[in-house]
Amino acid sequence: MAYRAHDLLDFAMAACRAAGLDEPKARDVAEVLLEGDLMGHDTHGLALLAPYLDSFAAGEMAAAGEPEVVSATPVAETWDGRKLPGPWLVRRAIATAEKAAGTFGLGAVSIARSHHIGCLAAYGPPVAARGRMLLLTCSDPATASVAPWGGTRRVITPNPIAAAWPTPDGPVILDVSMSITTNGMTARRRAEGTRFPGPWLLDGQGNPTDDPNAFWADPPGTLLPLGGIEAGHKGFALGLLVEALTSGLAGHGRAEAPTGWGASVFVLVIDPARFGGAERFLAESGFMAKLVRENPPRPGFDAARLPGDGAMARRTKALAEGVALHPAIPPALAKLAARYGVALPGA
User: Fold this and answer.
1) I need a labelling partner for 218 at 20 to 30 A (CA). Which of 38, 76, 79, 242 fits?
2) pLDDT surpasses 90 at 68
3) Residue 202 and residue 43: Cα distance in Å, rounded?
4) To which H or E segment does residue 295 belong?
């Protein structure tokens, strides 16, 4: 079943408002989560709406107030997010960083104690449409799921890196976790009773496995870093880089042993106009895009593609034909509709 995007947006906003979020926060949460489903990242779309509102009801997500500015220069700021809604915080941080980038070429904001920020890819296209580059990454210092290379106990989270930049024919968008899979997908596979297509995890003894149940065994398993058994040292190294960019720069992380669902976040906006020039940047990014798209496809592929091509194609199709939600999501939305007295959108 497919749903009209604007109906899903209206429902998500109404549920957030009924739960107690003000209009700007409700809109940012609803829009960012919907973008996850539009792009096909359905573990980080409206599947998160009920957990977000549960977190708010439990007092783990704050609704009122502003982030605290811990330090600020004309180019860089650090905020204490005070567990305010992640999508609202990140959008504000991007706006702050863009303003600085327009003057100085660079703008950065690090955020400690944000709540979860949703699908990172959702934030990139608007920045790229304004001719700028975005680098966005996050970690959750209160939990862990990935072991160090050669180890068996969890020390970091999947730690995604997202980026977006313009080309003459649309944005390049990437959103890549530094582990092969994510916590959310592992939970979904377990609930479905399905296995992964390859050894994407380690069991508690450090043996490769495709069984998601190993993640919850005693001792617990771990997610393999990006690169897997053959090259996971690379993914784990990048995951440590994310730890430094997020919790390290924000000055609050695992060393403080925080609790509760949340995120440390790093936002960097770059204005090419302040470097080699916007026209030269687009000439180069367009040239590279052409090299990719005109590359002869290998067997089994219709064409080579840029990062983000698939997501933007899915988004265009979903806006035109309806959003096909994962089967687990409509029942969760129905429970929210009953809880908050909000009309459920029709399929």
Assistant:
1) 242
2) yes
3) 22
4) none
